[in-house]
Amino acid sequence: AFVVMQGPPSEQELLERAHLTDKLELRIGVKDDVPGVALRDDETGQYSGFDIDIAYMVASDLGFRRSQVRFFPIEPEDRSKMQARDDDHFVTVDLVVSTYSVTKEREELPRVTFSAPYLLTEQSVVTLKGFPMVQSLEDLRGKAVCTLGTSTSQTAVAKAGANVSGKNRLSECITGLVDKRYDAVTTDAAMLAGFVFADPLHRLQHHDIGLEAVEAWGINTGGNEDLRTLVNLSLYRSLNNPNDQRWEEAFERNLRVEQPINLPQEIAEDQ
């Protein structure tokens, strides 16, 4: 008997095993209310932002044209279930590209399969201008703080003794802050930065709270291991191919432009 050497699967084999070869559209769950990250234009229905650019980059490498990509808004707690909203019902998406930080707890959930990180950021705090300097979460003890429910930020700020309100939409937190219903908003700096940048009246102040922990955003492929391998290939090439500037351009266009007005907080690492 002779042994047939099995090499690693080809990309075509991976696409077949990931059940992508017969798909006419790629469904992607994203945020829809965070400027600079993922924002849906109410008039045109078009999405824009860093997560959107990364989603298009990965989709293109999977063989899908832009016209074949469909975005669906997904709530924080539905990212692990791959369930996004399509008007009055839910649809199962193929990918979740939605500021989803990789954590051990999440990786143990049945339908969570994270790619390698595509963005590194950290938790920070935004207040109205004139609020005392916030240098740690403990400075928010007893204060009314809004964050995203089921997010990594919620646990940390609750431990620090703040009165935490968890919302499904970050835009609701920012609206509440401007209306003075909350003293502060906390979540990942790359998300908060867009609101600071987009506020025409410049009412918001970004605070660096000096947390050591990195928030590493990953793409959830919903238990589809072959799809994860393909997503990682796309990210790997984007990192290592000097001619592939799509990630860098997405960072420049969406995040680096927001940096000056968000000092002293670094929005995200530029690689």
Instruction: State the helical fraction.
Output: 25-40%
Report the C-alpha radius of gyration, rounded: 19 Å
Low-confidence stretches: none
**What is the residue-averaged pLDDT?**
95
Shape descriptor reads elongated
**Main sheet summary:** 5 strands, mixed
Structural class: alpha/beta
Q: Oligomerization state of this entry?
A: single chain
Brief sketch in words of this structure:
The protein has 271 residues and is α/β, with parallel strands linked by helices. 28% of the residues lie in helices and 21% in strands.
Polypeptide structure, described:
The chain is of the alpha/beta class and 271 residues long. The chain has helices at residues 11-17, 50-61, 104-107, 152-159, 170-178, 189-198, 225-240, 246-254; strands at 26-30, 33-34, 38-40, 47-48, 69-73, 83-86, 89-92, 95-96, 119-121, 123-128, 144-148, 163-167, 184-188, 204-207, 215-217. Strands 12-11-13-10-14 form a 5-stranded mixed β-sheet, sandwiched between helices. Strands 5-1-8 form a 3-stranded parallel β-sheet, with helices on one face. Strand 2 and strand 3 (38-40) form a beta hairpin. Helix 1 (11-17) runs antiparallel to helix 7 (225-240) and helix 2 runs antiparallel to helix 8 (246-254). It is elongated, with a radius of gyration of 19 Å. It starts with 10 loop residues before the first helix and ends in a 17-residue tail after the last helix.
